[in-house]
Amino acid sequence: MTNNIEKFDIPKTEQEPKLNEGVDTKEVIQKYTTRDRRSVRQILEESKKAHKETREGIATEKIIDSLERDNTNRAINLLRKSRTIELIITNPEIQKLASEALGRKLSKTGDTGSAIGIAKAFNLPEQIIFNGVEQGLAAAPIYMFLNKATDIQKIFNLPEAHLKRAAYRQIAETTGSGNGYSNIDENYRTKFQLSEEEFRKAVEEGMLKRISSGDIDNMV
What we know:
By secondary structure, this protein is an all-alpha fold. The chain has a domain at 25-158.
């Protein structure tokens, strides 16, 4: 399935450091004067590589910290300033955190613009985007889900299976919390194309949660 979101055009910013940029010249001289069997060129290349890996690691840690704090603007700014964008955006942990950040934008306010911005900035793969959208829809307030879920599905070209899983979670969580219990009816099931069996299991899961917590007031 083709994703309608235009992918982020990653700028080619990678540059090799100059001799005096990130390379320990004292180390080079010391190793050379102590009859290191490697050539000066080899030592320089190894020093450059070590500096590059250190620089990438620092940038990655800062971006991870920003995403964990839900500061996506800072994370995106750090990413754009980095010289190792392609390496950072393929980091599995960063992809996971960016997907979760995308989901939070949708669950809190239904902000599709910011969610798309995150997907583009981190050049998230299609499946990672779908997972984030599903999580966001599943965690959204019930009224927002009912009003915006199908529109969000169209914007992200979300496969039906992801929407159905989000709807299942909404039913289970809503019946489990007791909030808006009367909203969960047959119309809800048909709107999100859940089978009778799926609908029944979700309601049962939610009601069992309420019973186990001792909250049985006003149960129908």
